[in-house]
Amino acid sequence: xxxxxxxxxxxxxxxxxxxxxxxxxxxxxxxxxxxxxxxxxxxxxxxxxxxxxxxxxxxxxxxxxxxxxxxxxxxxxxxxxxxxxxxxxxxxxxxxxxxxxxxxxxxxxxxxxxxxxxxxxxxxxxxxxxxxxxxxxxxxxxxxxxxxxxxxxxxxxxxxxxxxxxxxxxxxxxxxxxxxxxxxxxxxxxxxxxxxxxxxxxxxxxxxxxxxxxxxxxxxxxxxxxxxxxxxxxxxxxxxxxxxxxxxxxxxxxxxxxxxxxxxxxxxxxxxxxxxxxxxxxxxxxxxxxxxxxxxxxxxxxxxxxxxxxxxxxxxxxxxxxxxxxxxxxxxxxxxxxxxxxxxxxxxxxxxxxxxxxxxxxxxxxxxxxxxxxxxxxxxxxxxxxxxxxxxxxxxxxxxxxxxxxxxxxxxxxxxxxxxxxxxxxxxxxxxxxxxxxxx
Length: 440
Prior knowledge:
Elements: H1 5-16, H2 22-43, H3 45-53, E1 73-74, H4 75-78, H5 83-86, E2 97-100, E3 110-113, H6 115-129, E4 140-144, H7 161-164, E5 170-174, H8 179-188, E6 193-196, H9 198-205, H10 210-215, E7 220-223, H11 230-240, E8 243-250, E9 254-259, E10 266-268, E11 273-279, E12 282-283, E13 289-296, E14 307-315, E15 328-335, E16 340-341, E17 347-348, H12 350-360, E18 364-373, E19 376-383, H13 391-402, E20 408-413, E21 428-429, H14 431-439
Parallel strand pairs: 1-14, 4-5, 4-6, 6-7, 7-8, 18-21, 19-20
Antiparallel strand pairs: 2-3, 8-9, 9-10, 10-15, 11-12, 11-13, 13-14, 14-15, 16-17, 18-19
């Protein structure tokens, strides 16, 4: 067997109870890391080759603080390799669940997991978000884009046995159903937990009336899969009449962390993965931004050791600078590829431009920023109310002045901004991604 039964029992024990102290958590992470490294070296050709290239042996990794000895890997390193090089030797890749990433940073990556691994990671997510309220009998509804779902993502035709007993009841509703049908389904099922991407939930929130909200019994809303801006959060909370909690995840790791109940940043799910944040190759300090690097503790069928996720995040203020592993994040800024690279080497994160639009233009309801040319930005906007005839030009000039006239900016009023084929709304489209997608 590719992973021992004792290891699976230990994993489920971790799901059922949270480690009481950071020392207990680090001990679990170190023990699991040693097991994972031995397994990857013995069973996965990619990692054996990676270790051998730098002269690294499994026994060189004794705990979390030894992680920097392992070379970094990224999507570019894995996406073109055949499954038998990145999956464990005694695992049939065809027997595994397969999920393909959206490919927004290049070619998609096919991620494979055993069904037990997937169930365990989903159980960890459920345990964390249960702290917001509700219980095992609370009905959960997800509003999402369904046209491109995979077998892994598909909605079961029949509920699992525990759902038939009234536990973990779940409904999936297509995002483009009429508002009246969505409200009817939520009200009939007495939905208490609403889940969806920020863009989808905010669109539908705009349509809800006071009468609609009176029919609903939603305790809280969980968002994920996209950047959640303050403006979008406010619209979701006002429209659905419930507090919003953001979850942070990825296809590679499933669940990375969640917004804390009081709203102060994101707590890392340390029972699921070890998170590092690197800035210019070194561990980022509290309050600094860097790239998230993750090591999945329950992925043995297709391991992820020191995997560069490509997300820019800010380290939590409670982080111990002497530790490699990060336990909390202040903020998630988005993909590293979302940065705008202008002529002359100037690099700007889109959040700087988004802040101008969000904080200084109250008439603006929704926007999307694209970079059609190297020194040109095109901003599509949906207004709360029609702006004056010269307002769009005034906003464009204001942004240009912030960049000292080195770029040109154009704003365009539009009526709608539907999500992409994968169901995600792309708030920022830099030059590289825009032109690659157009040619691809």
